[in-house]
Amino acid sequence: MGKSDALLRMEQLRKEAERGMKMETWGYAGILLLPVSLPLLFCGSRKREKANEEMDELYREVFIREPLEENFDNTSFEPYEGFSEEMVEGFQICRMGNEFDSEAYGKGDWQDVHMEMSDVTISDYDPMARKGNFNTIFKGRMIVLHFPERIPSEQVSSQLDERLKKIAERHQGADMKLTDHRLILAINDGEGMAFYRQKKKGISLEAELIKVQEDMDEIKAMITLIREG
């Protein structure tokens, strides 16, 4: 399936999921009329879940795997694997909570630099709270760039800050950390990046795809800045 066909199909699935949600709402509203409302509730729920499942698969394919392969060499992508909690804690780039999840793991190489990325969700869960049990600390994508040589942090920090600022403006903030041989990026997207269905209604898929490529371009520009010192 080509990109344009995939984007069209995702739009169709979004509308189908919305129709399923409306059917569920009607089912709940008419719960007293059990012979009518229960089948409507079940059909609406199944329609919504099926559409969302297919939409998630398409999003992972078009917005994660394909851009990864188009921009990096020696790539691999595991949609249901991710960074370990211990690995993310070792980044020391954001506070850790008591709930952790990671998926959509990808890796590749560019200019002799090895890249790893994964979607990460970090939150605090309070079982005693009546409302707002989850306090989201970070929800977005973390990227690790492994350099064969030591990074000259003093020379490149200010230039990297400019690149990071551009990424942050496209999302809900971003942060970075330099070590001897690694650049770690944390791109906070608020709603996460692996699931298109969680994004706001009316969002342009074409605009989202452009944003993904712009992020890839900034990452490669960061690699070039560091390699050139």
Summarize the structure.
By secondary structure, the protein is of the alpha+beta class.
Task: Looking at this protein, list some descriptive labels.
6-stranded antiparallel β-sheet, 50% helix, 229 residues, 5 helices, 24% strand, alpha+beta
SSE order and pairing:
Blueprint: H1 3-29, H2 34-71, E1 73-78, H3 85-91, E2 99-110, E3 113-125, E4 134-146, H4 153-170, E5 174-178, E6 182-188, H5 205-228
Antiparallel strand pairs: 1-2, 2-3, 3-4, 4-6, 5-6
Helix pairs in contact: 1-2, 2-5, 4-5
Structural class: alpha+beta
- Spans of at least 5 consecutive residues whose pLDDT stays below 50 are 192-200
How would you describe the shape?
globular
Number of helices: 5
- Proportion in β-strands: 15-25%
Helix content: 40-55%
Q: Major sheet: size, sense and barrel closure?
A: 6 strands, antiparallel
How many β-strands, per DSSP? 6
User: Gap between N and C termini, in Å?
Assistant: 41 Å
Secondary-structure element sequence? Answer: HHEHEEEHEEH
> Taking strands numbered 1, 2, ... along the chain, how are they ordered across the largest sheet?
1-2-3-4-6-5
Query: What is the mean pLDDT?
Result: 84
**CA-based gyration radius:** 20 Å
Describe this structure in words.
- The protein is an alpha+beta fold and 229 residues long.
- 50% of the residues lie in helices and 24% in strands.
- The chain contains 5 helices and 6 strands; from the N terminus they run H-H-E-H-E-E-E-H-E-E-H.
- It has a 6-stranded antiparallel sheet with strand order 1-2-3-4-6-5, covered by helices on one side.
- Helix 1 packs antiparallel against helix 2 (34-71).
- The protein is globular and about 65 Å long.
